[in-house]
Design brief:
Largest sheet: 4 strands, antiparallel
Number of helices: 19
Helix content: 25-40%
Strand content: 5-15%
Strand order of the largest sheet: 3-4-5-6
């Protein structure tokens, strides 16, 4: 049976399953995916489970309409007959990304694209096809120039050509990356200093300001000669570069982004692909944790997290979350999928490209761009930002409130609790980072967060409290030390997100309690690499004090040594006649 006919006969569940499988397969299945999406849309099959095609895409497939429309366009343009499951043979070897780029090309320009090309190479073809502005020829007096070791007069129309040819610059215009790479070669030591400044800062806006304060603190820094010039102005004016007759203007934010990418390319130049250390836009490698670490958050350099990062990155491990995504349903920011198109069509007007225009979070001041906060006219706005413009209509994808739910379920209650926890945790972190908040306000917020964390952990584990393992018979010092160091087997008691500390406890039968405070991946003055640190706090019942007085010990910020704890365990088992404590 023909594949197209088979799809035509599928109903809601079977067709939805096939779409999801096509989304996970190779890019060449884009034509098939587009055909099936057309079938769902045109046949109104989405009505089997949703109120609209948009709801079906968003809730069932986690796909924005803008992306679905591209797959549909691919099917119309590149399938046999314009409406089938089969791709036209001449496009069978192209990648999905290249097909998407070719959608906006004319048939004549599309003829220059080859199957083995990358998306960047196709964009270069489109960029070069744009009309070029004619360059005015500056009026200058005829002067003598040196060519091949002798003096002679050169006609005016040849002077700029001589300057650029001696530098080895072709006549065709160059992009911003070429300008920055030339700058790095001519002013190598100066460029290295700027790169180090960028690596010390958190995002593009901080880097931009730091660069301006580093190189032209008084609003002016110049270096140049007849062939090239570099002008660094005030923060508002940015900087200008010239090579021969070609000129390029940068904002400091854009210059920082291009400089870091060029620095990464330079570092990896000449190294085989399998040995290249890939770096993030911040100049850091992928975050790696030691075996057994409780921290597993994806990011770079132990400093930045993928789920909140809006940079265009080649080593990204996890999607950036939507600004409205609750902790229990972390759906992705779909705008991150079209950064290439935004850069080409919107340029510096888009806050995802020029992040100094975006909202910056309190505390770390990191850029947090979002289409919902954008006033520009753009065909790439996500559905949630479009929904915002409808008066009185709530944003798509938000979690329903308890009073709107006819019947509560454990799954809904767990998701709602996580959403509330995430909201309250963010508020607590802002209190701490901003400072100046009354101490009792911070304390109350900390209590709310700790209570919600215990509630969520109870929901996830399906039990109200952690059942600790039985204390084994410890026959010697080595066994007692090994038991202490294996404190994670007791089960995590709770975690303090505000200071990044994990707590474990063990309750002994005599009423004593041993608490372990674990500080993951801490760096100190002497060590070159961070490591997990842990401290024991024994709350001993009937502890012998000065003058033989006994008291029940309360928690203090003074850790107990491993030697003391070994002796405590030894005495505890002696009191029990060798039985378990």
């Amino acid at each position: 049976m023909d594949a197209s006919m088979a799809v035509e006969r599928m109903e809601y569940e079977q067709l939805t399953g096939e779409i999801k499988r096509a989304m996970r397969r190779s890019a060449r299945d884009a034509v098939q995916l587009g055909f099936m999406l057309r079938r769902v849309m045109d046949g109104r099959i989405w009505k089997a489970g949703y109120n609209s095609f948009d709801d079906y895409l968003r809730e069932e497939l986690h796909m924005e309409y803008s992306l679905a429309s591209r797959f549909i366009a691919i099917n119309k343009r590149y399938s046999i007959s314009g409406r089938s499951m089969d791709i036209r043979p001449e496009y069978a070897e192209y990648s999905q990304g290249v097909l998407i780029e070719m959608l906006s090309m004319s048939p004549e320009l599309e003829g220059n694209v080859k199957p083995e090309m990358t998306v960047r190479e196709v964009r270069d073809i489109k960029r070069q096809a744009k009309p070029k502005k004619e360059k005015p020829v500056p009026k200058q007096e005829e002067t003598e120039v040196v060519i091949d070791g002798e003096y002679r007069e050169v006609p005016q129309e040849q002077k700029e050509e001589v300057a650029t040819s001696q530098m080895g610059f072709p006549e065709e215009p160059h992009d911003e990356y070429w300008f920055v790479r030339q700058y790095m070669g001519i002013c190598a030591s100066e460029a290295e200093g700027l790169i180090e400044v960028c690596r010390m800062e958190g995002d593009s806006s901080k880097r931009a300001k730091a660069l301006q304060e580093y190189i032209p603190p008084y609003g002016c820094h110049y270096s140049g000669c007849k062939e090239w010039e570099f002008h660094f102005h005030s923060f508002a004016k940015g900087l200008d570069m010239r090579f021969g007759t070609e000129k390029m203007h940068f904002t400091y934010a854009r210059f920082a982004a291009v400089l870091m990418e060029a620095a990464s390319e330079k570092k990896n130049a000449g190294i085989p692909d399998r040995q290249v250390e890939k770096l993030s836009p911040y100049g850091y490698p992928v975050t790696e944790y030691p075996e057994g670490s409780l921290l597993t958050t994806e990011g770079c350099g132990h400093k930045y997290n993928c789920f909140s990062c809006a940079q265009d990155c080649g080593i990204r491990q996890k999607d950036r979350y939507c600004a409205e995504a609750p902790l229990g349903n972390p759906f992705s920011c779909t705008t991150m999928n079209v950064l290439g198109q935004l850069k080409e069509e919107m340029g510096d007007s888009c806050q995802f490209i020029s992040q100094e225009k975006a909202y910056h979070r309190p505390g770390d001041n990191a850029a947090d761009p979002c289409c919902k906060e954008c006033t520009e006219t753009c065909g790439y706005r996500c559905d949630r930002s479009v929904a915002k413009t409808d008066e009185g209509e709530s944003s798509a994808g938000s979690i329903p409130k308890a009073q709107d739910v006819k019947e509560s379920t454990p799954e809904y209650e767990s998701a709602e609790a996580k959403w509330i926890l995430d909201k309250e945790r963010r508020l607590l972190n802002e209190y701490i980072e901003v400072g100046g908040i009354p101490e009792m306000t911070v304390l109350r917020q900390g209590i709310i967060v700790n209570a919600l964390e215990l509630m969520v952990k109870g929901q996830e584990s399906g039990q109200e409290e952690i059942i600790q393992p039985e204390l084994p018979s410890l026959k010697n010092t080595d066994q007692r030390k090994e038991w202490l160091r294996n404190y994670k087997a007791w089960g995590l008691w709770y975690r303090d997100e505000s200071i990044d500390v994990n707590y474990y406890k063990y309750d002994f039968q005599d009423g004593s309690r041993l608490i372990v405070a674990e500080h993951p991946q801490r760096q100190d003055y002497w060590r070159k690499e961070p490591r997990d640190e842990y401290f024991f706090h024994l709350l001993e019942m009937g502890k012998k004090g000065y003058g033989q007085a006994r008291y029940d010990e309360k928690y203090r910020n003074t850790p107990d040594s491993e030697t003391y704890l070994v002796e405590f365990l030894k005495d505890l088992q002696k009191k029990r006649g060798g039985k378990h404590g």
